[in-house]
Automatic annotation (TrEMBL):
<dbReference type="InterPro" id="IPR027417">
    <property type="entry name" value="P-loop_NTPase"/>
</dbReference>
<keyword id="KW-0067">ATP-binding</keyword>
<dbReference type="GO" id="GO:0005730">
    <property type="term" value="C:nucleolus"/>
</dbReference>
<dbReference type="GO" id="GO:0006364">
    <property type="term" value="P:rRNA processing"/>
</dbReference>
<dbReference type="Pfam" id="PF13959">
    <property type="entry name" value="CTE_SPB4"/>
</dbReference>
<dbReference type="InterPro" id="IPR001650">
    <property type="entry name" value="Helicase_C-like"/>
</dbReference>
<dbReference type="InterPro" id="IPR025313">
    <property type="entry name" value="SPB4-like_CTE"/>
</dbReference>
<dbReference type="Pfam" id="PF00270">
    <property type="entry name" value="DEAD"/>
</dbReference>
<dbReference type="InterPro" id="IPR014014">
    <property type="entry name" value="RNA_helicase_DEAD_Q_motif"/>
</dbReference>
<feature type="region of interest" description="Disordered">
    <location>
        <begin position="685"/>
        <end position="793"/>
    </location>
</feature>
<dbReference type="InterPro" id="IPR011545">
    <property type="entry name" value="DEAD/DEAH_box_helicase_dom"/>
</dbReference>
<keyword id="KW-0347">Helicase</keyword>
<comment type="function">
    <text>RNA helicase.</text>
</comment>
<feature type="domain" description="Helicase C-terminal">
    <location>
        <begin position="288"/>
        <end position="435"/>
    </location>
</feature>
<dbReference type="InterPro" id="IPR014001">
    <property type="entry name" value="Helicase_ATP-bd"/>
</dbReference>
<dbReference type="GO" id="GO:0003724">
    <property type="term" value="F:RNA helicase activity"/>
</dbReference>
<feature type="domain" description="DEAD-box RNA helicase Q">
    <location>
        <begin position="46"/>
        <end position="74"/>
    </location>
</feature>
Amino acid sequence: MAKKLRKSNQERKEGKQTELEQIQALNTRIEEWDIKPNSSMTLQAKNFRDLPLSSNIIKGLSDNGFTKMTAIQQHSIPVSLQNWDIMASAQTGSGKTLAFLIPILEKLYKLQWSEYDGLGALVISPTRELAMQTYEVLLKIGKKYNLAAGLVIGGKDLKFEVERIYKMNILVCTPGRLLQHMDQSAGFDVSNLQMLVLDEADRCLDMGFKKSLDAIISNLPSERQTLLFSATQSQSLESLARLSLTNYKTVEDPTLRNIVSSIKDKDNKTTTPATLQQSYVTVTLPKKLDMLYSFMKTHLKTKMIVFMSSSKQVHFVYETLRKLQPGISLLHLHGRQKQTYRTDVLDKFSKSQHAILFATDVVARGIDFPAVDWVIQVDCPEDVDTYIHRAGRSARNGKNGKNLLILTPSEEEGMLKRLANRDIEPKKLNIKESKMRSITNNLQSLLFQDPELKYLAQKAFISYVKSIYIQKDKEVFKFDELPSEEFAQSLGLPGAPKIKFKGMKSFEKAKELKNTSRQLLLLKNADENGDILTKKDKQVKTKIDKMFERKNQTVLSEHYLNLTQPASKKSADKADGEDEDEEDDFMTVKRKDHELIEEDLPELLIPTSKRAQKKALSKKQILLNQGSSKKLIFDDEGNAKPAYEVLGEEEFAKDGDLETQLEKYINKENENMKLADADDKQLVKAKKLEKKRKRQEKERMETESGYYSKENAEEEEVEDYDEDEIRYVAGTGDLDEDMVSEDESEKRPRKKVKYSRTDDSDSENVSENNVIQVENPETLEDLESLTAKLLQG
């Protein structure tokens, strides 16, 4: 077969011209599209094929099962294709990701974007998990485009990203890592950016990224298209829209509100999907874990997400319930885990058919888990928006789902009132006491056996109490009504740990400091004259210094610091006015570092040869050189101490100086050891003699009774004993003659002992062998004859 030849320049030009004509036709259709909310064109477009989209995106969508559009996609994509800025809001799980990825791909395709044009589109997500999910969808639907896409999030290799980020055409990222690349990556250029997307923008603001977003937007070109997507709307979101959007349109899910052309109406309400069954139960705080465990045991064939307020609670509940073995796969996810582990957990839970995921609000926004049956909100959400996003992990894309909110009696009235203001009215469920199972005793047993679990329980208790303390809505979260002792006992603790509260100002200050720019921090570190301190003016920390200051990753890291922290630093902290809670310390070591003066030290003989050095460093040789240890005396408390410390210097000096008493003590101990050795040898020798005597008596008795036959006697030999034992030579009947010493036994050859029996044929050879052989006497005459023979012999 002939090889397929490459396209000629003429064919390439024709193909290019055809593609440009197709793009021109698409632009004409887009300009003719009526984007009004109730227009016939918008209402009749049900599938992606009905929109003015290129064949590349239609092919990518159909290959991945995307054919029909959701409501937000139906109304927002045509507006985006006409290059309008958009602020869109819709229900959770309504398909907002495709609503902004399709316009990105289409715009870069129509501009004939290439690798030489640089970065064309930027997607900013609040969490790493949401950014990874968006990136995966982008790779699936954009495989027909000749564009380079990249994922830039925290927890990844920064050097790897720096080497490749300047080649990217589409970038999906988190705010913190993007701002870091803007500051540090020399080849990262955003001057040619065409489109900016802020996904879950309200969450970015809630997480404290407002200053980061302001810094990012200030570095981007003003002539760009901006798409702002969120499930809820707030005043902070409106202020961000005014800063980043120009000539924009507000797009909402038409099931909630018709599309409007401005943002003047501030009564926006976002509800949950109609396919979501919402309910709530009221239990006391100490009964929450019992309620959760009982619910899990009755729903083992489901897939559910359990939301809690802090990572320490998630960690504790996961570790304890995992040991109780409820009969279903358990997973946990929170922000303190490493990125690789978080990615693995997301993948496992997405692929599982029946599993329970304990998580914080890190997965409450935008993450699309397939087929989640139940969402359990163990801890009350901080506001209605958080409730909506949590519940939105179920009943996605028109599927059915269930949400259960667990409230305490003090939270019930306030939270239900706020939900009703947003047209959310969950149904109340009653708990059957017969179905409730208490795990308090099990938790107490686990905490008693495992100190790390007890430590986790203490941290979980403290984190929950602090989370209630810092809540702004005091009508819902009533700190004064917390049953602290009962709640601590429900976690398996013997009592409630003590908690130090820093106050609301310190929390807000820490949150601001976390997101403060480096330039402002440098200004704060300036001296009195206003000069910024350089690295030379202050102590510079190297990589090695940071390595030694790094904490352990185990749960006992704080206790480890208490063990290793020098006493001098603790005393300095006390001098600065810092309070120390002695009961929180696991163990304290008082250590003093003494300065050594070289002149006062004795001269040391340094071994010259390697063999001598090795011998000097040998632990065994060191112990031999040291000899016996110092004389120790136990005090009243049972502690071993040197004799001169217990007796006192004067009483100790009566018996002589230290060297004299030590030499006397060693000599005495050596004599005692020699006496003990002699006694031990005598005892061993006596045991051996007794053992041999019993054996000889047994063999003599067997010989006299004729136990051995002639054949067996000729084959059997006397057992050979060790040289340390006394040998049995012959049975003469006299014990003193039968027992010989070791020296005599060595001179005598070992003999075989043979036994013979009475035989009529050999009765005449009595005198030769000195053995009298007779028949068994039957009469009195036979006895007299036998007696006469014995007397003659």
